[in-house]
Design goal:
By secondary structure, this protein is mainly beta. 32% of the residues are buried. The strands form 2 sheets. Strands 1, 2, 3, 4, 5, 6, 10, 11, 12, 13, 15 and 16 form a 12-stranded mixed sheet that branches. The chain has a single domain (23-246), classed as Acetoacetate decarboxylase-like, CATH 2.40.400. The protein is built from 4 helices and 16 strands.
Length: 250
Amino acid sequence: MKKEDIIKTPSMPAFSPSYPLGPYYFKNREYLIVTYESDPDAVRAALPEPLEPTGENKNLCYFEWMKMPDSSGFGDYEESGSGILATYNGEPCNFSVQMYLNDEPPITAGREIWGFPKKWGEPKLALRKDTLTGTLEYDGITVAVGTMVYKHVSLAAKLDEVKKGIEKLNVNLKLIPDVKGKPQIAELVGYRLQDVVVHGAWDGPASLELFQHVNCRVAYLPVRKIIAGRHQLVDFTLGYGDVLIDYLKA
């Protein structure tokens, strides 16, 4: 293998790359998002500086399930995880705390490119009779259950507003050690979803239960009060991001 071949290889292993070069297009991606109030001290502990929490009590979080039936380079899979509503230099953003999914390519690409906090888990988003239902299992143990009424409040007249929310700044904490086990990359990474098309969106009552698990710490941002439920179906392009802060140089 020549140097130029090595440099052009999109990912490891070189003989069978885990993922191709991006950008990556997602079609008919379905979401269940439950926004809730959590413990302010837990939120602050999970949020890297200089991000600041939002909400009257500085404790707004969200838990989401996502079904990806058609994603270029990654295939068909499901995902769930938690995040914090925050600001970066005064700009509203979503900070990803932890994510669990059942497909190797997006786990590997997500961690290596954008710093998504991804681990293997078994999420499931399904319509069960009149209830949109999300579940997450880790090592065979149920750690999260979310439910929402099905299409009670249509947002068909507000899809432009929904689109703007999807296009807001997203932030990850990217941590990768060097071959000696010392920090090589310690960055705050920002990215935005592009080419967003909203096929539908609905609001309505929702519920969320999180259960303690030492290796899947979704309950470390405990539910204090449910704020809102959102169901949406969208297309978008996941492009590359930017380094907001390099902690090794700051």
